[in-house]
Amino acid sequence: MRIRLDHFLMQVHLHSSVLMSCVFVYGTLKKGQPNYHRMFDSNNGKAEYLGSAFTTEKYPLVIATEYNIPFLLHIPGQGLRVYGEIYKVDEQMLKFLDDFESIPEMYQRTVVQLEVKEWAGKSEGEEILSPGSITEAFVYSTTTYRPDWPSLPCHESYDTKGDHGLKYTCREARE
Is 118 a catalytic residue? Predict the structure, then answer.
């Protein structure tokens, strides 16, 4: 099975014609975070961890609402370079993530350029990216936010148990 990574489309084409996309996650879907389990629930689709990276541009990563949700505000050039993880996901998982991220009401799926920190992707025939390499992936960011959000503290990396003291409230606890 030969895999070709197309940086401009953020998609991986398998000879079996399965379409895979690269997604950058920076919040509750990262390893060790409250929604990480959703990335590997086979009912949602398939996901494979490829590596970690920072956005090449600065963005405000803020924690907002009474549920302490991490939001990446789509304001390039403000905030900090944001750390996260890159996953290869199938079409079913991409659709699940679109629904989970409430596209288009809460978030929009856009393209972001990333600087690779470490690369773990080891699929046969897949391109290996070295630290410092630039790649692209889909990211869920928002252009719809309250006027005070850009003035909230910005974070380079999200952790629900971080020093900020703003523990995330899971969806199940909200209902």
Answer: no
Q: Are 72 and 139 in contact (CB under 8 A)?
A: yes
Q: Please, which residues bridge with residue 61 across strands?
A: 72
Tokens (6 digits) for 57: 């541009």
Taking only the tens place, the pLDDT of each residue in 37-87 is: 999 999 999 999 999 999 999 999 999 999 999 999 999 999 999 999 999
Length reported for the chain: 175
How does strand 19-25 pair with strand 134-141? Answer: parallel
Beta bridge partners of 118: 52
Q: Kindly give, in sequence order, each residue whose CB lies less than 8 Å from that of residue 102, ignoring residues fewer than 6 positions away.
A: none
Query: Among all chains, which residue has been given the structure tokens 């803020």?
Result: 62
pTM beyond cutoff 0.85: yes
Give the span between the Cα atoms of 110 and 112, in whole angstroms. 7
Give dist(CA 74, CA 50) in Å, integer: 24
SS3 breakdown of the chain: % helix, strand, coil, rounded to 5?
A: 15, 40, 50
The candidate with the shortest Cα–Cα distance to 137, out of 115, 118, 114, 158, is: 114
Which one from 85, 101, 126, 136 is the annotated catalytic residue? 101
